[in-house]
Amino acid sequence: MSKPTNKKISESTIHRLSIYYRALVTLENEHYKTISSKELAKREKLTPAQVRKDLSFFGSFGTRGLGYPVAELRNRIAEILGLTRLWNVALIGVGNIGSALVSYKEFAKQGFNIKLIFDNDQRKIGSNHKGIKVSDFKDIAKLVASEKIDMAIIAVPAHTAQATADEVVAAGVKAILNFAPINLKLPAHVILRSQNMCIELEHLAFAMTNDVISD
Amino acid sequence: MSKPTNKKISESTIHRLSIYYRALVTLENEHYKTISSKELAKREKLTPAQVRKDLSFFGSFGTRGLGYPVAELRNRIAEILGLTRLWNVALIGVGNIGSALVSYKEFAKQGFNIKLIFDNDQRKIGSNHKGIKVSDFKDIAKLVASEKIDMAIIAVPAHTAQATADEVVAAGVKAILNFAPINLKLPAHVILRSQNMCIELEHLAFAMTNDVISD
DNA sequence: AATTGTGAAATTGTTCACAGCA
DNA sequence: TGCTGTGAACAATTTCACAATT
């Protein structure tokens, strides 16, 4: 029922699902009732065939001749991405990036609730960030369990990131978003995504150096 | 000379080049003189064949039986990525994320020098962030030219991002890194990369919801 | 003996093109 | 008629496997 095809959904399809989701939220605000693959593709600089292929992975949702029902499709994608529930997130490290993430409103909008903040700097422990008291990183195991934390965001310096991640995993966290610019080694059962902001700037530098022109 | 093959270097290869670069910097600090594709692959969770294919795009740098010379290879990748020069970067928007980026030390380490900061909030204009005075966004065209800005980082709220980007492009900036969670529409000659932090969390949510286990 | 460099094979991802349906 | 859903064709990327080299 929830798996109309048994083909594996690719990473790139999941990525585009996030894109569709955001587009559909916008379309809903613009009071669209339906949207065709052609129009959705145009908005997100994709091809209509790709939109249809992606959406067909989880069943027939469109109406031939008409397009896709915006609200229903947005809902369905939210279900698939796991956005119909709240996620309890722990933030590790409240330096530059960590502080920015606490205040980042998009997270809350998508159901990612930063519930705990950890640091190991005595000057920061006990202080308040957007109404959340900074806890001592030593207490992570206890608090992750009691607060039912689902995910952790690691925003500590590169040289402590691996040790930090190991402790986060030991505390029972099963999914990590890493902002430290290193490749973390974690057990296979832990889901890891990394965000390295330098890599994107390097990509710009590469493109400018090599006169890459996107057409 | 600089183009030993005429095959196009793919986006994914460029991405891995950034990864190799960082790995090689680490290896150099650990006093490695040479590194084999096997060992490099192991460190970065890739396959040896892929490492060799990627590196072969820009010539034969390895020595059969021995591996790749760490320092030389790091240098060569730096050249390819355009990291052997300084890049003048303008930051647009000094809210949560913008503030974090000004203080983010990795940027400077890789030669990305945030030289100008812009905002349109009168309370912020004139204030200091890490020794850089916040300029009025109205003056962007003049300052981009006089300060020889190469790239802009857009860190403004989603609803103003498109208008901001349009002005940044009008000011003559040819490369943009966008942190606003929308799909910017820009002329083809402008190089654009986007970083959407929600998408990564959504990926974690998807993986947890669907019991994806990376093996 | 160890490891690169690279065609060829396998796999994965994208686009085409059209039958089928509203 | 317009647009979806999808198998087949095509394109890109990754992996294999091995000759060449130190």
CATH architecture of the largest domain in chain A: 3-Layer(aba) Sandwich
Largest interface: A-B, 65 and 65 residues
Question: How would you state the average pLDDT of chain A, rounded?
Answer: 94
Count up the domains of chain A. 2
Please compute the radius of gyration of chain A using only Cα atoms. Answer: 20 Å
Q: Cα distance, first to last residue of chain A?
A: 41 Å
| Low-pLDDT residue spans of chain A | 1-5
**What order do the SSEs of chain A take from the amino end to the carboxyl end, as H and E?**
HEHHEHEHHEEEHEHEEH
* CATH-assigned fold name of the largest domain in chain A: Rossmann fold
Shape of chain A: globular
The portion of residues assigned to helices of chain A is 40-55%
Account of the 3D structure:
- 2 copies of one chain form a homodimer.
- Chain A is an alpha/beta fold and 215 residues long.
- Chain A folds into 2 domains: 11-81, Arc Repressor Mutant, subunit A; 87-199, 3-Layer(aba) Sandwich (Rossmann fold), CATH 3.40.50.
- Helices cover 43% and strands 17% of the residues of chain A.
- The first copy, chain A, has 9 helices and 9 strands.
- In chain A, β7, α8 (158-170) and β8 form a beta-alpha-beta unit.
- In chain A, α1 packs across α4 and α2 packs across α3.
- The radius of gyration of chain A is 20 Å and the shape is globular.
- Mean pLDDT of chain A is 94; it is low at 1-5.
- Chains A and B meet through α1, α5, β8, β9 and α9 of A and α1, α5, β8, β9 and α9 of B.
- The first copy, chain A, binds a DNA duplex (22 and 22 nucleotides) through residues 10, 12-13, 36-38, 47-50, 52-53, 55-56, 60-68.
